[in-house]
Each structure stands twice: as C-alpha cells, then as structure tokens.
Amino acid sequence: MSDGYDLVVIGGGPGGYVAAIRAAQLGLKTAVVESRGKLGGTCLNVGCIPSKALLQSSHHYEVAEKEFAHHGIQTGGLKLDLNTMLGRKDKVVEDLTNGIAFLMKKNKIDYVDGYGAITAVGEVTVSSSEKGVKKQVLKTENIMIATGSEVTPLPGIEIDEKVIVSSTGALSLPKVPKSIIVIGAGVIGLELGSVWRRLGSEVTVVEFLDVVLPGMDGEVSKTVGRILKKQGMKLKMKTKVTGAKKTKSGVTLTMEPRDGGKAETLTADVVLVAIGRRPFTDKLGLDKVGVTVDKRGFIPVDEDYQTNVEGIYAVGDVIGGAMLAHKAEEEGSACSEIIAGQSGHVDYGTIPGIVYTHPEVASVGKTEEQLKDAGIEFTVGKFPFSANSRARTNADADGFVKILADKKTDALLGCHIVGPAAGDLIQEIVVAMELSASAEDVARICHGHPGLSEAVKEAALGAGGRALHI
Asked: Is 70 a catalytic site residue?
C-alpha cells in the first residue's frame, strides 16, 4: 500500500465512500479509513437500510394479518418467525456492504481498517483501536472528514442495548416486546415504533414538542399524528422524560408535563431513545491541527467544504444541516470534484426528506410556516389520495399531495406528501424544482392513468385553481 495519496477520506459511510469513488473517477489516488470493520457507515449497517428491511417485512405481516380477507384471500395459522425476519435484514446489509467493498476494489481505492486521526496537516494516523494502538501513517495532499454522527444520549438514561436501546438495539430485539416506549417522535422513533407495533407491541411515543415530525410542514405533522393514532400507536406529546429505572420486568420511565404539572411514570418492556443524532468528531485530532469545531461539535466549512485549515475538508453529518445519507453523498461527490479542480455544487433547496412509515411522508423545499415567516405570498394546491383512482384500487388512500407555488411567478417553492410511495413521488417535484419549473409546467405534463403520480398533477393543477377530480 502506497504512503502517498491525493486524498484520504476518514469515514466509510455514504458521504465518505461516495467521495472516494468520485475522487478515484477523477484520477485522484484515494484511501478510505473506516473503523467499523465494514463500509457503509451508520446508514447501511445500523440505520437506513436495516430499518427499511424491517419496515417492509413488518408491513407484509400486518397486511397479511389485517387486510388479506378484504381482498378475498383467506389465511389461517399466520405466524411470525422473527429470527427469519431479522436474518433477512442482516443478509440485505451483508450483501450491500460487500457490494461497496467491491466498488472500492473496482475503483482502485485503498480501504484501511482502523481509527483515523489527523496527526498533522497532510497526515492521517490509523490505529487498530480507540485506545490508539499505532498501525500506520498515511501521507496525503488532502484530507476529507466524513465520520458521520452518533446517537444523542438523554441525560440520566443509560443505554444498554437490551432493555434501554438506541436505534441500533431496536433493530435486533430478540423477541417482540409486549410494550415499548419510544422517546422522540422524529423520523427514527416513528419508523422503528411502527415496525414493532405491526409485529404486536403496544407502542407509546413520548415527545417533548407539540407534534410528531417536528420541523415538517404543520399540516403534514398533524395528519401523520392522526394516522399513527388510528393505527394504534399512542402519542404522549409535550412531555419531558426525567429518568429511567431498570426493573426485573423491564423499565420504569419517569416524566412530567413540559409546561408544568404532576409527574408520572410509565412502564414498558423496552425503551427506545430516539431524540436525534450528534456529529461524531471526537478523537479525530482536530484540536491538534487547529480545525475549528463549534459548541455542538459540528465542523464549519466554506462553500468548497474546506475547514479553516487548508487541505482539510468535511462533508455529511459532521458539518450540520439535514442529517441525511443522500445529502452526505451529494456533498462528498461535490467536494471531491472541487479538490480535483472542478466545480462541485449542491442545491440544498431541493434535497428531499422522507419518512418510511406507512403511509410514507416526503417533503422538499419550504413549508407553509417557513413561507409565511418569510413574508412570501404563495398559492396552495392540494389533492387527497382518497380521490386518486390507483390509491383507491390499492385500498391505500390515506394522505395527500400539497404543492406550494409563488403567487406571482408560479415557481415551485415546496411539496409535501403523505401517502403511498411518497418517497418516490416527491422526486418529480425535486427534478421540476431543479429545472426551475412552475406549478403549471407540472400540471401540463401527462401522467399515466391510473397512477399515484396523478395526485401530483392534480395538486399542481390545484395551485392554479383548476384541479379536475375534486
């Protein structure tokens, strides 16, 4: 293995490995340092991918249990084999991590297994353990930090990954708990809460704020909360968790009303802590080389993703913004292009956010609340899936498509979808916004019938006051 590189990437997650591939494509001699023992980062190993595998499996189980009869399909003796379900999830992860390892070889990228730290400008030292057992020193012209994020702990609550778990432990529970308390009504909490509710757990979500999916369009948050309640998930909002005590039978959680009131307790077999994630920037040696880190641990970068130290760059969760794998990928690719002398760019106004509950939730651009706060006049086009032929034939008609357009120019400002395949449908608006399309442009595109995408067309028509099927 050569000692001299054009680029060494610390972190083999979506931002890091994509950056490495793009750099290699552009002719840069590249290495990736990763401590997990497998590439793919949190997303592939203990995040996006295994959770989606379980979401699909648990959805199939619930459909077979509750909806087959409606289609004239009679089932008997339905049984859950959790070990097989978890095994399938693990196989999906294994296949994809092996695929990334293959891509490293295909692109002639050196994959270095170990903990990377910046020991000098142009120097990354790789240790075989967190304790710092020295392994090798990599010399490089450029360094890219792509170490991602880790679970944000809740003060006073110790995660043991058995009865008090993070998202990692919630992906591998050995049996279906009778009851689960999820602390946090964000994306991770709602997705994993949905998995175990479908498989038979009584799920209670405890949230400090007023609504589920805080930060999303207000109407979306309210609609999702209502749907989740209808599905059987209990929501306890405006509640502060103050402690957790492990008992022989599970966990006793203590809490109090956020706005004042009497304290109370809740008991459950398992507690999932899902209050968010924080940047993983410890033990990188940033202070030794003078890289600035803010109070929350994020690394400030300029428009070229360069830190305050020349030749040291950062992308993904560590620089803040939306903590999304696809955002990290775009940043990693753009950063490598910049290092190679090209003009990399990311349009942060068109990065979609997706929640893989059922129905799915997807969003791009501004919310109604953001536009009102900014004093921007806009029109709203909204179309319910209950009026969409394909959604009705699929018996999957909860939710709506909402398009927000500039009142003067008709430019697309945002789109928010609650409904079947929302994560795929949102991409039409992402492309339209990237190409500076108007709501009328989308409305005048022919959409296949009967199709879920017709709801997008109808919402675009609605922005001009001329929806056809409602």
From this structure: no
